[in-house]
Design brief:
Blueprint lengths: L13 E2 L2 E2 L9 H19 L17 H14 L8 H22 L2 E2 L3 H9 L1
């Protein structure tokens, strides 16, 4: 069973209709937060033409190697970071830019059976 073949009526967490887990099991909240984050990024990579539309996530939460590379490319392109010369400041700037980008993706997404806390945690993590 793939993320796209899960019964649409099944009680599972979804991002824009894509199931994040199998109907008979829900991951712990931290893992669900990670799945929401990666699925938002995977779908953004598809929309931007960096990832084939036929790429689907696995129900165990893993991504294809191609999806991982597409997400890396997406983040390099979308996250505009100042060159601070300080590694700590650079990491902080990256985290802030990622949070802002995820906020934009969440605002555009249709989330089903995803608690507000999970989304908030994804934006604060």
């Amino acid at each position: 069973m793939s993320a796209l073949t899960v019964d649409p009526a099944a009680p599972v967490a979804r991002v824009n209709g894509v199931a994040l887990h199998a109907p008979d099991w829900c991951p712990p909240q931290e893992e669900l937060r990670q799945r929401v984050t990666f699925e938002l990024l995977r779908q953004a990579a598809q929309r931007d033409g960096l990832l084939d539309a036929r790429d689907v996530p696995y129900l165990d939460g893993s991504l294809s190697t191609t999806a991982g590379l597409a997400i890396d490319t997406l983040l390099e392109r979308e996250l505009k970071l100042p060159d601070t010369g300080d590694e700590t400041q650079q990491q902080q700037a990256w985290v802030q830019a990622l949070r802002q980008y995820l906020r934009q993706l969440v605002a555009q997404a249709r989330l089903e059976r995803v608690d507000f806390e999970v989304v908030s945690d994804a934006l604060l993590a």
